Amino acid sequence: MWVLVALPACRSPAPPMDPTRTGTAAAIDLDPDPDTVEISLVAEVAEVPLDGVASEAWAYRDAGGDGPATVPGPLIDVPAGARLVVHLQNDLPESTTLHFHGIRLPNAMDGTDHTQPLVRPGEAFDYDFVVPDPATYWYHPHFETVDQVWKGLYGAVRATAGGPRVDADRVIVLSDISVDVDGRRVQEVAPEERVEGRHGDVVLVDGEPAPRSISAGRTERWRIVNASTARFLTLALADRPLDVIGTDAGPVAEPWTADQVRIGPGDRLELFVDLEDGETVELLTLPTDRADAVPIGETVQLVSAVGSGGRADGDGQGPIEPLPVPEAPAGAPVRTVTLASGVAPNGDALYTIDGIPWPFETPYDVPLDATEIWDVRNDTDADQSFHLHGFFFRVLDIDGLAPEHATLEDTAEIPRRGSARLLTTFDEPGAWMFHTHVLDHAELGMMSHVNVR
Ligand code: C2O
Ligand code: CU
User: Fold this and answer.
1) Which of residues 141 and 8 earns the better pLDDT score?
2) pLDDT class for 316, splitting at 50, 70, 90?
3) What residues have CB less than 8 Å from 47, skipping those under 6 apart?
4) Extended strands (E) in 154-277
5) Is 411 helix (H, G, I), strand (E, B) or coil?
């Protein structure tokens, strides 16, 4: 027989509400099986408030719940190792796809126009794959990518499994936007803005103008996603170094501290933050030099967190086994990948890989399971945020210098007029795209793909 038991008196009181203003509530899991997360997203044109002003965005709505579409889209929360099913319904006036940035998945689920038919207006597509690695990822369209992301189509994926015990495991999605005098989103972008990569004049934290206030637990993990179309961020805390605990591929074997860390568009960073009761921690982005022709901007306060002393909304997670970071095998083939800019016959700016703009690229051919070193050279006047689909790579060196910490990434900065060498094992067959995540440059041609077979 059932007995009702009062909650034990020692149960800590509900934590103060996290003043999240929008965006990152998790999509509802429609499948009761704990090993499957099934969610249903609708991409639609919606009035989404921005600082209290209703304004048109392109946004994802969780069809499993009854809330409105949000920017960023619903958080996809999935235990690592679980199956993730995402039903996408396209109610936009334009075709779209859904790409899961960073997740190692079968090629047919990669969400690009090389791997599936475009999801046309009124159509639907089901994504269905296992999320193998615990890390912070994000999702976005891979068709008319820069404009669709700019209009609001992006969201975070949190794949959990261990990591340091924390009171709150928090996702923080950073992006930017331009607004008109009435505070409404500006969706049109002039051709000149595309040449250097558009910058919004307002930095957004979880879809609202920075800064965001957080009532924090004693210990927190912050999973930071740079979903900007072009903005590089120089992250720092106001009065102490950053505790870096994870990168694109999830937790690192040995956390480290740094005064500041740059993350380019598409990149992610995981931080550990601890706060005494009443203590304030401020997350900033500092002035950032990303291109000869782009002003460095000012310091922007992103997050102001006040310690509440008690536990916040998360559960402790326990130890985790980070992915091993490989050494370069002797004699690994080296492939030169050249990023450059140019001018089209009609005078328009274009960007290229190996001298050719997408979609006219000549794909690379790599045998299945081959390990290669890509020597990525950036001949442009702008730093590029280089992204490879489907695999993690190790950054061996940047301008000839090994980075201080060996990590696995799917997105890494290639300095202007410089280079970086990336080590990758291509252990999943298919057509995998790679491109700069300065999305205007990608759309203007700095994009290609590799056929693994
Ligand atoms: Cu974030 Cu080709 O993507
Ligand atoms: Cu990607």
Assistant:
1) 141
2) low
3) 54, 55, 56, 57
4) 155-160, 168-177, 202-205, 208-209, 212-216, 219-226, 233-237, 242-247, 250-258, 261-263, 268-274
5) strand
Write down the pLDDT at residue 321: 80
Q: Are 215 and 19 in contact (CB under 8 A)?
A: yes
pLDDT tens-digit readout, 40-71? 999 999 999 999 999 999 999 999 999 999 99
Continuous segment of H or E residues that includes residue 58: strand 53-62
Atom of ligand 1 nearest to the CA of 140: 1
State the ligand closest to the CA atom of 385. Answer: 1
Residues around ion ligand 2, judged by CB within 5 A, are: 101, 389
Q: Nearest residue CA, atom 1 of ligand 1?
A: 101
Name all contacts of 140-143 with Cβ < 8 Å and 24+ positions apart. Answer: 140/98, 140/99, 140/101, 140/227, 141/43, 141/96, 141/97, 141/98, 141/99, 141/111, 142/97, 142/98, 142/99, 142/111, 142/112, 142/113, 142/433, 143/94, 143/95, 143/96, 143/97, 143/113, 143/118
Grouping H, G, I as helix, E, B as strand and the rest as coil, residue 145 is helix
CA–centroid distance, 169 to ligand 1, in Å, is 24
**Helix, coil or strand: residue 194:** helix
**Could you read off the pLDDT of 273-297 as tens digits, one per residue?**
999 999 999 999 999 999 999 999 9
Share of the chain above pLDDT 70, in %: 92
Q: Please tell me the distance between residue 99's alpha carbon and the centre of ligand 2 in angstroms.
A: 6
The residue nearest atom 3 of ligand 1, judged by CA position, is 101
Q: Which ligand is nearest to the CA of 267?
A: 1
* Rounded Cα gap, residues 341 and 1, in angstroms: 73
383-423: pLDDT as tens digits = 999 999 999 999 999 999 999 999 999 999 999 999 999 99
Residues ≥6 apart with Cβ < 8 Å to 433: 110, 112, 114, 142, 389, 447, 448, 449
What's the CA angle centered on 41, arms 39 and 44, to 5 degrees?
170
Residues 65-98: pLDDT tens digits? Answer: 999 999 999 999 999 999 999 999 999 999 999 9
Find the 264 Cα to ligand 2 centroid distance in Å.
Answer: 13
Ligand 1 atom nearest to 411, measured from its CA: 1
Cα 114 to ligand 1 centre (Å): 13
**Which residues lie with the beta carbon below 6 Å from any ligand 1 atom?**
99, 101, 140, 142, 266, 387, 389, 433, 435, 437
- Tell how far the Cα of 155 is from the centroid of ligand 2, in angstroms: 13
Task: Compute, in angstroms, the gap from residue 387 CA to the centroid of ligand 2.
Answer: 6
- Is residue 91 classed as helix, strand or coil in its secondary structure? strand
